Every structure is written in structure tokens, then in C-alpha cells.
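User: Hey, quick favor. My workstation is busy. Could you predict this chain's structure for me?
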Amino acid sequence: MTRLLRWETVLIGLCVVVLGYGTIGVDGFGEAAHISFLLLDYTEVALLAFALLPIVLTGQIDLSVASVLGFCSALTGKLWDGGMSFETIVPIVLVAGVVLGAVNAVLIVRFGLPALAVTIGTLGLYRGLAYVVLGDGAVTGFPENYRPLATDAIAGTFVPYVTVLVVLVGVAMAVLVHQSTVGRALYAIGLGEQTARFSGVRVRPIMMSLYLLSGVLAALASLVYTLRYNSARADNANGLELVAVAAVLLGGVSIFGGRGTVLGVAAALLAMAGLRNVLFLGDVSDEIQNVITGALLIISVLVPVAVAAVTRRKARSHLRRTDEVPLR
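Assistant: No problem, here it is.
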């Protein structure tokens, strides 16, 4: 019974409902081309969500991920426009992502500043730097031999190449979070940083590495985004951090830390991608889609809190009944 009530199970059921309704009730939803579009559409969101997952597990946040993506996209365009080969640009952009992640890490971990305040600040800072690097214009014309990797499906299937990348990152994150000592440390930090430190967990090095990882995954997402749209712009992925946060929280990761799974986040991403595709094919405006995303974000925070409150109330009621049992 407990298994049936797990949030991951609810999300998988939601995926079945959304995908089933789309297939039966929405023209074209079940076609291979639209399934491929569904998977492509949330590629960057998935990479950003996997970047956020371990950070949120510790009770922290990184709201700058989409701005890191935007800066790295602008840097890609600037270097490409300057005549640099794409093979040289890729490692430079990945290093840039690490550097931006390191700025967050130093401010949050070394100086002890609140992660929310710092990453709201760097959200604006990195986006502003993107405009400094590239201005208001766009750079296009990226190499044709690389663009299909971000836009096309594997021959004979509807599965895009970049979906394989997302799956590999997701599997690596699952191993890190659920099968390693670092993963156990993440949950311990989320449940209580001081207690984790007294238990021998090296909190600072772990937290530093999480923000570096976030930076490099956001930089990787920028390369995919830039190639997929064949456009490097300073405003690329503007606002995408909220969708990534919504996916993480809807996936059952507690905003307070210490609870959540990679499976839950993956199921939330699939459900949100399916819902977006249903709305897109139904000609629902972007404004309404943003309203729905915001509603999902609120629900994803309220539901776990409500469930925890009900659980605590039941536990207290059980204890009272136990105390009232007369001794024989």
C-alpha cells in the first residue's frame, strides 16, 4: 500500500494519463515526428534539472543555471563568429561553465552567503555578461556536420541523438545519488548540515563540486540549445530555470532537502514534456503554458508539505492512542 502511494508512482501514473490522452484525444500526438519533438523539446530542461537535483537534495538552490546557459551560448556565438573551430569552442565553453559555477560555489560555500540570494544575483549578472559578450544580435550558421546531433533522430527510430545524452546524464546522476557515498552524503546534508559534518561528511568540498557540476551541465545544455536552434543569442533559455526547478520539485525532491529520487525527476520531466506537447498541438498560447508551469511549481511544493503534515498528525494521534491504553 505504501508503495502505491509513493510520489514516483503517482508521477508515473500521471505520465500514463497524459501520454494516453495525447495519443487518443490529440491529432498527431502519437506520430513518430511528434514523439521525437516531445523528447527534443525538454532536452535542455532535463539537463538543467539534473544539474539542480543534487543541489536541491542538500537544501540549497541554483537559480542561475539558465543564465549560465545563456552566457555560454553567447560565448559560443562570439567565438564562432570570430572564426574559431567548433571543436575548439566546445572545451572552452565547458570550462566557462565550470568557472561560472565556481563563482557561485565560492560565494555560497566559502563565504557562507545564502544560495537563494547569491544565485538570484548571478542570474542577472551572467545574463548581463551574455549581452556584454554578444550584444542584442544573433549568430547563426553553425557547422552542418554537428547540427544533426542536436536536431535529428537516430536512423530508423524516433529517438533523437540528444535523448541518448540525456539518458546517459540521468543514469550517471542516478549512480551518483543512489549508489555512491557522495549520494548518501547529499541526503545527510539535506537532513541537517551540522549533523552531517559531525558525522564526518566533508560538506564544503561536496557542495563546491555540486556547483561546478551544475555549471558544466548548463554549459553542455547551451551547446545543445545553440545547435538545435542554430542561433546563439544572449537571451537564449531566458526563464528556463523556473521550468527546471518545477521539474525537480514536481519530481518529489523536497525544497528543504533530504528527500527525492532521480526516477521522480525523470517521470516529472516526461509528464511535463507530454503535457506541453498536448497544449502545443491544441494551440494553447505560451502565456497559458507559463501559467500551468507556475501552477505545477506551486503544487509540487504544497503537496509534499501537506502529505508530511498529515503524516505527522497521524503519528501524533497514534502516540496519543498508545499512551491512553491502560496498563494491565
